[in-house]
Amino acid sequence: MLEPTVRGGFARGAPHAGHGDRRLLLLMARGARAGRRELCCCLLAVLALQPAASAAGDSAAADWCNATASTCANAGARTDPRHCAAASTVHTTSTAGGVTVVTPGDATRSDVDALATWCRGCREWIRATVLSRGGLVLRGWRLRGVADAERLIFEAMGFPTAEPFPQVFLDFNARAARLGVPPGGITQSNLSRDAPRAQRGVMQPPHQEFGLSVYRPRVVSFYVEEAPKRGADGASGRVYLPDAARRLPPQLLELFRENGWWNPLAGAIQPAVMLHPETGVETLQLYSFTQPLAAAAKEAYAQVRREHRPDLPNVESVDYGGSVTYSLELVRPNGTHVELPKERVLEYFRAMFLEASLHEHQTGDLFLFDNLLYGHFRMPGAPPRKLHAMVADEVDVRTLRPPDAPACVNDAADAEATRAIAALLGQFGTGGNLVALRSLLFLPDALFQLAGHVFWAEWK
User: Do β-strands 317-318 and 202-203 pair in parallel, antiparallel, or remain unpaired?
Assistant: First the structure.
């Protein structure tokens, strides 16, 4: 039986206090393990956590950035990101879920070029907003399509692209979409993919993007080409994982702290608890695209809705039709594996759904949030719902392990691991076999289309 030990010490005794202290300890621990250059970088990061030196400097920065978006763009490194939200070309509000909403400050300057100019000048503020609680929505701007959304994220905001898909996979998706037989109803392009459409009574398995791999994106974004007719239909369910961690029974949270996390498709031990790099808060792993975990998620959701959260929509099924059968498995410090009993798995998912919130989309929205802080899942709903998903800025989650991570996690920190795209394609069966896809591309259009109708386009 896997049981936690009882620990003292201020780090465990006060897990919710002193996030700045936890962040400082993490930076110092990394510096101690690093070379001289890395240590200097860590010290600079510590200094950056200190409060601003003078109110006069703040006022000057505010005056500088409040002028126009073009002035902010020309400011470059001198722009103070704390005041970009007050630029005259934008207006900022917040949703009930804490999402920062940026709308045009002037209706005559709501085109994508004006927005791109503001984004270039306020990259630091945007990054800080996206990589914190809530996230960011750009709303009311005249985006002409997903290409504009891609331009804003990867060029104007400056977020790095994540690992690319193999070209043969992209070619297959493009041809399947052109012939009306997209695999599973989803088309993956170079920088974005079509998100699945909402279905009545059906919820998507809760997850972090590429959560099965040690390599995953920091940023998840959705461009809303067509929003549902009713706000709650096809909303994005989200869970703020640090709050879910605090909802866990203390013994289960301690098990996560003291043991490693195992996903057989990743091929490497991961930390079960990670420290968010910007804030130092504890965050969790979340990925439930397996038969046992999808079933446990449905059972836990029903319990939470019945006993605590009647405001949540009714869910008849959790949409996983694959053949993967592993459950939630931890790794002891000595390297031995243990599967958590079902009741522990249900406790884990109950904590997630107790903290669930619904984000309602509007046509034209561009929604960005932190993939380490939030798990998400598509809620039930009726068509229409057409979203495009984009991910950016990849990180190896093993670098986010706490300073006191278990030995098995530290020992596996530099081990070879399956890359994110390879792990994802491994779940697709033949659909992820690049040799098979390359062979299909040689078929004439008529035969390719027929094969699509028979083998892959019906899996929607």
Answer: parallel
In angstroms, the CA 460 to CA 457 distance is 7
Phi, psi of 91 (to 5 degrees): -130, 135
Give the dihedral of Cα atoms 133, 378, 375, 266; nearest 10 deg. -150
**Structural domain for 87, as ranges:** 67-159
pLDDT digits (tens, 9 = 90+) for 386-429: 999 999 999 999 999 999 999 999 999 999 999 989 988 888 87
159/154 Cα distance (integer angstroms): 5
Pairing of strands 337-339, 236-240: unpaired
**Length in residues, the chain:** 460
Q: What is the pLDDT of residue 19?
A: 42
Structural tokens at position 385: 């719902």
- Any idea what the CATH number is for the domain that residue 251 is in? 3.60.130
Query: pLDDT, tens digit, for every residue of 64-99?
Result: 233 333 334 333 334 455 568 666 788 999 988 899
Domain co-membership, 441 together with 325: no
Indicate the number of domains in the chain. Answer: 4
Question: What is the rounded radius of gyration, in angstroms, for the C-alpha atoms of the chain?
Answer: 23
Bond before 160 cis per omega within 30 degrees? no
What's the pLDDT tens digit per position in 276-305?
999 999 999 999 999 999 999 999 999 999
Q: Which backbone phi and psi does 110 adopt, to 5 degrees?
A: -110, 15
